[in-house]
Each structure stands twice: as C-alpha cells, then as structure tokens.
Amino acid sequence: MTGRAFALMGALGSTLLVRASTLQAQGSARVVCVVDAATNAPVPYARVRIGDREVAAAKPNGREAVEGWCVVVPANARGAWVVTRIGYAPLRTTGDAVFSSPVSASDATEAQRRDTAFVRLVPLAAALPANVTVAPSSVWAGAGARNAVTLSVDSARALGASTTGALVALLPYTFPRSARGEVTLSLRGARREQVAVTLDGVPLTDPATGLADLADVPLAALGAVTVSPGSDPLGAGPGAAGGVLSLQSGRGSIASLRLGAFGDVSTEGAWSVSQGDVHVRVGGAYRTARNDFPFVNTASTTGTSLNETRVNNDVSRANALVQLQAPRVHLTLLVSRATLGLVGPVNVRDYDQDRSTTTRLFLRGTAQAGVTMFSASARTFALDYGDPGRAQFDNHAQASVLDVDARRTVGGVLVHVGAGGDRLRTTTAVSQDRARGFVSVMQARSAIGLEWTGGARADAIGGTGVLPSFSLAAVRRTTRTDVGVRIAQAVRVPTLYDLYFSSPQRLTARALRPERVLFDGEVHARWRTTDNARVRLSLEGALVQRITRDAIIWFPGNFGWSPANVGTESMRGVEAHATLTRGPIDISVWGTAYDPQLTSGALRIPTPYVPSLAGGAITRAQLGVVQLAASNRWLGPRPFTAGPRDPAFSLPTVALLDLTLSTRRTLRRGDALLAASLDNVTNRAWQSVRGFPAPGRTWSIAITITP
Amino acid sequence: MKTLLRFRITSMLAACATVSVLSACGDDGLSESPALTPRSSVVLDGFIQPGLTLVPDSGGSTQRIALGAPNEFDGGSFEVRNDTAVAASSRGAGDLLYIASLGTGAVRRVQLPARSNPARARLLRGTNGQALVGVPLRDSGALALVSLGGNTFTTASIGNLGACPSDVFQYSGDVWVVDANAACATDYRSLGAMRLIRIPSGSGARQVIALDGLRGSDVGVVVVGDVAYISAGGAADFSSFPFQLLAGGAITRVDLRTGTVLGTRNMPASSYGASARLGLDGQLHVSVFEDLDNFRSRTISYRLPELTPTGTRMPSSDWLALRNAAGDQVSCGSSIADGIGRLHCIQNRTGSATFLMIFAPDGSLVREVAAGQGGVDLRFR
User: Fold this and answer.
1) What pTM does this model have?
2) Which of A348, A507, A567 sits opposite B94 (nearest CB)?
3) How many C-beta atoms surround the C-beta of residue A665 within 10 A?
4) I need a surface site. Which of A45, A120, A598, A654 has the fewest CB within 10 A?
C-alpha cells in the first residue's frame, strides 16, 4: 500500500470517527454498509477487518440477512478498522469501533430499526471525504451528490420481485416498460435510449440500439440496484443523459425457486466458495413461462370489449454466472440466452409465428496495480429472428463491444482514460465499426462548508470529433439535512442503428450529430428525523431541468425513414420521496411531475411514454414473523406517439397494486425466505406499451434459501 | 364459378342497407362535383398519429380526424369521395379497413381476414347504387367486398385474383382488379408483368390483360371515360447498397371497352415510383422519386389521353418547376391540381411535420399551411 493511500486513509478515518460518534444506539444490531463516495452506489465485495478479525456478512439477529454490500459488526470487535476493495482507496480508522454502543443481538423485535452505518469508499484516492450516516430505511443508501435510491435484491425478493425488471419497478422514479419480453426503462422524463444501465460500472447498453434489456440480467447475479436520475457524464459516459441504473454484483450463495401464473417457473442459484482471499461464485438461472394470459381487448373492431388470450408470448431464458474476486483481480462472466415468441400488438396477427433468440455475453476483468486500476470488458449481443412462415425474413445480427480503461490519481485528481470499439454485423449486409476513446478527470474536496465534486470528460466516438461534457455538484450536509445542487452537460452519440438508417449507405446522405444535453441541473434537499426518534421520517425532493439540443429521434413519414436531429428537448420537473418507519411499519412514497417536450418548428411533442404525473408507494408491515408488503404504482396519461399531445394517442391513467406476504425461517445452515404474491390485485387492464396488454391479476410463490 | 360470383355480388349488394358512415355516399348519390376548387384538401397522415387532416381551401381552420394507433394503421393511400374516406392497413398493422366520415368525424374499422395483407381500399358502387368498399387482399389473392349495415358489416370475397391483387375499380358494371404479380406475401419482389383482370358482373369468363410494361408492387388506377390509366411504381432491389433499379415506373393506358392496351408511358430514366392522381383540371399528376440516391420527390403533369407532359417544366425535363418565394426548387409529393391549374402537394419536414403547399400554374408558391404530421397522401374533398 502506498504512502499516499495511507495518508488518505487517515484523513478519511478521522471523518468517519467524527460522524460515527454522533450515532445513537437504537436497535439490536450494528451493520456497516459500504457505498461509493461519488455515486452512493453500493460497493459489494469490500473486505472489512477489525483488528485481526475479518468481518463477514451474517444475520444480525438470526432472522434477517443484511444487504449484500453490508457486514455485521460483532459486539466484541476491537481494533483498527481496515476497509479495502479493489478500485477504491483503502480506508483505515484507529478507533476500536465505529459504533458508540454495544450490539444487542437478542432483541429480535428491533430488527427493522437496527443501526446502519455507511462507509463511503473513495474511488481510487479521489479526495472526497468519507462519510458515515444512518439510513432511516433500507431502500435509502444515505446522502450523496445525487437524488439516488438503492434497493437491495434481498429486500426486493421480500417484496415479491423475482426478476430484475420486477426489482426496477419497485424503485422510485423509474418507468420500466415491456412489449415483447424485453424490459427497458425511462428516467427523469427521458427517452429510454437516454438511460444508461451499468453492471459494476460497465455499460450494458447495446451500441446498436442504445438500449439495455434488463430481462437478460438474472436476479441471482445482483446484490443491489441504484437508480440515479439525471445526467452522469463522468460516471457512465455518453448515453447517460436521463440517468443511470447501476446494477451491482451480488455475493454469497443463494438458491431460489419461483412458481407463478401462466406457466411461470423460475429457478436460480449461486454457490460461493472462498479460499483465503480468493472468492469464487458460480451461478445460473433458468426461467420459462407461457405468458398466455387472458386480457380484455378494448380496441376491437366490434366496438365492444372482447375477452382474448395472448398467443406466441412464451419465454425461456437461461443464464450462467461466474465471478472471481481476489485482492487485486476481479473477474465477472455473465452469459444469457433467451428464446421468446414475438407476439404482436393487439389486433395484429402478423406476428403470431415470429420467434427470436437472443444471446448475450458479458466479460469483465479488473486488476489493481499500485493505485492504478485497469479494466477490460467484452460484450456481445446476438439476435436471431425467424418467421416459420416466411423464411425470407429470417436474419441474424450481432453487436460486439470491447473496452479497456485505466484510472489513477494524479495530484489529487482522479484521471480516467479508456478506449474501445463497437461492431455490428448482420445477415442483411450491414457492417459497421466504430472506435471510441475518452479521458476524464474528477476531483472532490471540501470548501466553504460544502462538499464539491466535479470533473470533465472528453469523448471521441467514430467521426463525431471531440465531445466534451462536465459535471459539478455541491452538497451541504448537517446531521439531519442535506442540500445540494448539481449541474452537468452530457452527450449521446447516434446508435449504430440510427446511423444505419441515416448514413449514406442507406437511403439519405444525412449525417447525424451527437445529441447534446446543454443543461442538466437539479437542486435537491433531504431532511430526516433524529436517529432516536420514535417515528423515523425522511423527506427528500428535487427540482430538475434538462435542455437537450439535436435530439436524435426516429420520425417516420418520409421515404428516408431516418432518425434525425430534431429540435430541442426541454424538461422541467419535480421529484419527491419520503420514507417513514414506525415500529413494524415501513413506508416509502414517491412522486414525480415532469413536463418533457420536444420543440421542432411548430410541433410541440411530449416525450412518449413519460407520464406528466406519476407516483408509487411501498408499505411494509412486520406482523410477527410475517411481513406484508404492498406496492402501489400510479401512472398518469402517457402519450404513445411522437406526435402532439392528443388524448386519442395516450394511454389512460392506471393504478396498480401488488401484495406480497413473506417470512424468513432460520434453517440449520442459513435461512429461507418464503414469499407469496398477488400482482395487479385489482385486475386492472393496462398496457405499458400501446397494443401490448399486461397481465391482469397473477399469483406467484417463491422460496429463496441463503446458506 | 360465374354463377357463384354473380350470387356473391348480388348478395352483397342486397345486404347494403342504410349505412351510417357511408351515408354521405348514398345521400350524395356519389355525384361528381363540377367545382373547380375543392372544399378542402385532405391529407392522410399515415404515421405517428394516423388520421386525416382537412385543410379548407378557403383558409379556414384545419380539422383532424384520428384513425387509430400507429401500430394498427400503415396505409399509404386513401380514397375520398364526397364526405367519405376509405383506407386500409396491411397485415403488419392488423388487416383493417378504415371508413371515415369527413362530415361527422366518425370512423369505423372493419376487420378483414387475418394476414390477408390488404392493399388500397376503393369506394365501389353496387348495382342498386348502394355503396361498397372493395379491398384487394394481396396475400390471399382475393378481393374483399365490404358493406355496412348499421353497426354490422358483411364481407364477401372474390378469389383467384393472381399473385398480388393490389387495386380495384369498376367499369361498365364489371369489377376490374390489377394483379401486381409480385411476391407480396414475402419481400414484394416482382414476379413479372402486371395483369388486369376483368370480372364480369354477369355471365362470362374472366378476362386477363397482360400489362407488359408494368413491374413492381405499387399500383394505382385512374379511370377517365373508357380508358384506365394504370400506374406502376417499378421494381428495385433494396437489399443491398447501392440500391439497384430493376424497372422504372410507368403508366399503361387500357381501353376498357375492348380490353386492349393503348400504350405505355415510361417515367423518366433512373426515376422510381409513379403515384398518379386525376386533377380537377382533367390532367394526370404523377409523383415520382427522381432517383434511388436521394429520393427527391418530383411531379410530372400529363395531358390526357396521350399522356403528354405539360405544365411549367424545368429545362430539358418533364419535372414541374415548383419554386418557393425565394425562387428555390421545391420537392413535394402526392401532387394533384385543382380546376384552375393550381398544384397541391405535401411535404414532410423535420419531425415529419407535414405541410400542404399550393403552387400557381407558373410553379410559384402561393400558399403553404401546416397539415398534420406524417403525411403520405393527398386528396380533394
């Protein structure tokens, strides 16, 4: 370990102890969770040593597992703290404990109110002060420079989620949608291609389409998910104009079986083994479903509602996962293969036989040498499309991505450089290649009572020239409040698909310019009650605005059928989130109001599928050994075309309610989570994508065993 | 077969009772207006928010009629007669027939056979004067005849109409269908010369007329007097770049009395497409793409019956010389002229915003008005 790193550790440790001394003893267990100081995202696989003792994940009270990126601190732990994790500056404290009062492990009724300390690791020696704070809710990861919220996979399973898509639907501020088995999402009034999805920091976005399909990521591979609305040019690079959904790898062993309506059978498992400082995790998942649910066709030509059944809507997905964590090397391999029926819109029978098979591969390796971290990643996405009745339409497409990058601190500034390439090949004679490179610098420091984080980035992608972007954030923190402001600029380059239809090789010689976010800003504030309050309440809100020039939008209606740089997109909005915990009751409520609009000549076009008003709530009540969870989601009218606002072209308001009963049982080794869910309890007929009905009331039961 | 066919048509016409949406046709007796200028121009918005945009010629406010969701409408053409407009969506958009009343804004959708791949819809007339809608079903090799009665409709069909029946008209009581002779069930490649099929209303054998000069899958028919002007868009290979023009667009004249081909007018070399509309000036106005490189829309006006290029043209060209106020050339499509020689056409701009442009006989722009979004066809009301 270098002298610089130790010096930084000392500074961080001092801050940690100052914050820790303010903690008040509340509950039965002491848990330390590790998060990224810059993004507030959970950091799994951190190694925590207290004295000569390594602290591992465990159940603090024998009944409830901690989050995947947290560890339980034994009551008798004494000695210096050392928190290490590849890619982050080591953190060392000289105190004998972070907490100021002893652990009361036998108080089972306080399970929901345990004290949780957050250790904020700084990415590779960036000069951001470490911080420790107390979370009033398990779905809140503490204050940060962004209006971000994290949900652990373990919590999501107890809420009834068994897929990554279902997990994301539980997060505030998210607008996932699905038509033919895929799951994509919108954040902060953005189009879905303006949202970046990352796995352990690596973008999963397909360069051909600009989308990442969450359905291909098994829940067993994940430990937590963080939603961060707003542009993030430094953390996720180009494409993160509307926000970032950060997926974090999971850890430990797990086995899960879920049975649901319409032939839904899902199994997944992961097995983890350690040998010294080397941890290996191997897992897999398989899911199949007929999805032949009944629905009410309210758009039939008869003028009356018809009861119909979805056809050619089945899905079969298989996933494999291999993870290796050594002190200086991390490797992740994720492979998925899905076969699904490509059901068409209601009233369209042309797709009743169409099938597709998608194959994805994600491989990432990270190594640390001194204070420099090197990463390399490779991704491929292959699509086979077939129509048994018309072989002429069969085709195959494969997009591949290769990236390498390095980051280290130079003079207190985190420098990040990288290069990569995108490649697309299809059986319809499409051949595209594109090289990329970037450099970014980021620094964080405290000044005039504020925590500042800022940086700049320059990307060069294909023939687009140099694309600069920046982000600057300032936060003022007190014991119970955080007030911050953040501004940024960002870019989104045309996808290969966009270029395919707009470049000279196709119909019209029309060059597309990168889409530029001229201004992305937010002012956010958080307030929370004292840690020893009987009713623990947190409130947070943000005023947001985004202005985008040269928005790349596909407007059909001309022979070119090309995407084009069209006008200026503007968005103003408000986001609010509140959590309340009182005794066994835990409530999380959120709401958004957005006004996203494209202005092009005389046209005023609201962003498709973004509701002006939306909200949701998750209510959890611990009733003895059973937890009852209710998940509400309310979506206002959503336009479904890229045309002027018109009620005839909007999906109606919908309110959805999901209920889940769950309980944890201690096994001889490990524990079992049993969950039974009723989704869409009120049996509402609704669509997330126009023409593609969602199921009505459905049931599922799941058991998840964590050794 | 003849008896069966006669029975089907007779049954269909007998079933054509009072029709709510089609009442305009019946009320008006399908009379042709002698007006020199249209009451309004009607733009078919084929994409994004499918519908009809009515732009009064008097300069009044624009009206709009929504047809349906974009994944349930993909029609590229429509027909307007008096207060009724008809259009159809293909198999990829639900095999639907749309019938709209321009007077009331009412829209009815009729489900045609699944995966039948309807082509353009046409307003026909029964032997008793009642209204029918004829829709060629490209993948079924058939013609659907739809009549509406109150809230119900009945459909009959005539089969064995070739590889890809794509347009239909009536003449002298008989039904005539143009078979594009293309692989419309798959990739729309041309399989050979198009054919005109005459289906007698009474007894008699079908007559098949070879249209040797016509290739492609896009067909349109304009009947003037005893002559049918059948336009074909031509054939091209779009599967690889650069695109390859296999056959250019052309218009063939057919004497319907004798069933003989009078001649064929080819569109200019290297051009693609031939979308023809009969103007109120009695001339045929044809929109074509200048080439397969930039797909610039051009208009040629033909004097009938010889199909002689006319109008104010660009030097050494058949293209009409259309200019904006700055004197720059204007590219627009779906052209049609009124009775005083003004050419109306539509142009899709950024965001697929559609504009109706009206040019004086000398080609100068005299009016421009926003006309919806995603415009694909233009007709007069």
Assistant:
1) 0.86
2) A348
3) 13
4) A654
